[in-house]
Amino acid sequence: MDILDASAFIPTERILLGPGPSPVPQRVLRALAAPTLGHLDPLYLAIMDRTCTMLREVFRTNNPLTFPVSGTGMAGMECVAVNLLEPGDEVIVGVNGVFGTRMVDVMARCGATVHPLETTWGDTFTVDQLGDLLDARPRVKLVGIVQAETSTGAHQPLAGLADLVHERGALLVVDAVTSLGGQELRVDDWGIDAVYSGTQKCLSCPPGLAPVSFGPRALAAMDARKTKVQSWYLDVSMLRKYYTGGGGGGRVYHHTAPINMTYALHEALAMVLEEGLDARIERHAQMHRRLRAGLEAMGLRYLPRHSLHTLNCIGIPAGADDAGVRRRLLEEYGIEIGAGLGPMAGKAWRIGLMGHGASVRNVDLVLAALEKILRA
Amino acid sequence: MDILDASAFIPTERILLGPGPSPVPQRVLRALAAPTLGHLDPLYLAIMDRTCTMLREVFRTNNPLTFPVSGTGMAGMECVAVNLLEPGDEVIVGVNGVFGTRMVDVMARCGATVHPLETTWGDTFTVDQLGDLLDARPRVKLVGIVQAETSTGAHQPLAGLADLVHERGALLVVDAVTSLGGQELRVDDWGIDAVYSGTQKCLSCPPGLAPVSFGPRALAAMDARKTKVQSWYLDVSMLRKYYTGGGGGGRVYHHTAPINMTYALHEALAMVLEEGLDARIERHAQMHRRLRAGLEAMGLRYLPRHSLHTLNCIGIPAGADDAGVRRRLLEEYGIEIGAGLGPMAGKAWRIGLMGHGASVRNVDLVLAALEKILRA
Q1: Backbone angles phi, psi at B303, to 5 degrees
Q2: Which domain holds residue A352?
């Protein structure tokens, strides 16, 4: 390997219209490259505190325990699971795509007995379906559900779920990786007890942090644990002492946080709040409608019944070459879109319109490019 | 909170001479801020592959399974523990500071029975001490030891340990968080079976990734597991399919890697190899001697018997105000040094000379600053 050559890399500027990461604004990249501070420096702690304050606004929650986990989105899922579950617990997980399937795996690794609530990939769950399974499984401690299923583009409605779950004394856990900052999400109003997301979707920050928030019921469940959390790295009983000074004893060092990633998240959240959360969610809705109108005019078909605005999953038209089309988009236009996952591999394309990427410019370009390539 | 004000932050440029993070060169910060690529983009995969190739050189290993875990240093420790251990396994862990103590905790959370090999904080272990405990505990599967104990500055010699451990059929696991790229570390020559580190110490990259390497004995132990790895996020049986295409089936997506952090690590490793690993280790030795001579001339005393070059742990002189001196260093000079941890709190200062920070300029400045402040 030629080291000098290796060090001279300059990544090409892609237009990221896949399932994430989404395009990162220059302003966020500049914040990312600010001088590294120590993780106990008062200046850094102030930046981290402001980051958590802004996260609360974007999650629409007052939960004090709201912070970015030091890993990517899946570390957020694992953080929620390992802290809320103990061996022998029973849980229900909605499975209608890759991320529900993963939640089953992650929770089973915590020693939980998982009762999957299944439906066709691309479909979503009704309040009645969940109610029936809850009636059949009265010992369930937690219900996990994916609001924005990145693998299928399905948008799970959450209204009404919390009451149903709380009546049974269970907790509502929501995967909001592909919704936070792009789709309506109201943690407190909707009674969500624990939620996790990622930075590289609708927040338009590079991947590397997983925002999480735990409400009072989740805190009570953690306080009632009989066993240690199986992950030291993700143990909230220690993390909360660093992030909030909570749990007694003031702020205590746990692990070295990813300092520069926190700068980037700080800047990305500031941009979300400057735009306004409602305006941003409306922009995602508008760009989705614009894309959808264009795709449907070309004869392309959406696969999920209720589509996310942030991720558009369409069937690959008969005769089109899946990998060939994606390669031409990448090579001729510098546009990345996503392939289908799991049972949708070879059958679906996934076009993400997330955060900074959800613009008229990008929608019209990807439509023009797809039209040229498919017509050729 | 005033959002516009919050977004306008520019972190002060500190001289980071604490226990890490270390100062990050502009060149690495510039790489960090390069445009974000998708984690499956061929361009990104090429950057990641080159990063792993360079990591092998810096670890001095040919282990194919060498990659950066998507978390900070402690995620590296946890990754090694969860993959090598199953409930009921017995392990020996050397405990002479904070990080040995943490390794006990992390491994116990994997269901292992931990036999601590203890000595005074600041001291290190002899081959005989370890041999005696291995004789008393013949069922031990793994021996964990910290090469560079960041909490005390003690430098654990590793030569001769592997033979002893391998004779008993056990694995040698080494914590190299504060040594990789700054102290001599020869993974293959020294027979180390699994090793982990962090990016924010002697590699002079921001925190956010944990380089790990697993040798053939460790792979065999993982292949012989009877239970699933308790962490999905850190499960090497899946991670290796993404990082090396190994384990059959070619390269498979696992989780979204921290793209921009990989750029930074790529650039930091290129800088290590341009300098030359031997030259870099020698520079750390020289800067340590220069600092030590200056500190001892001022009457300050090193606490550990065998001091690391990368971290200098000295006793706080009688009459000096621990927090006051550190605050003056920070406020008047912009210099961060570390406080004592655990039983050394209030009794020790930790001066890190790591990577980019190990320079004549920094050594002479911190000596001059300390002399001024202590004399006042």
Answers
A1: -85, -45
A2: 15-21+276-375
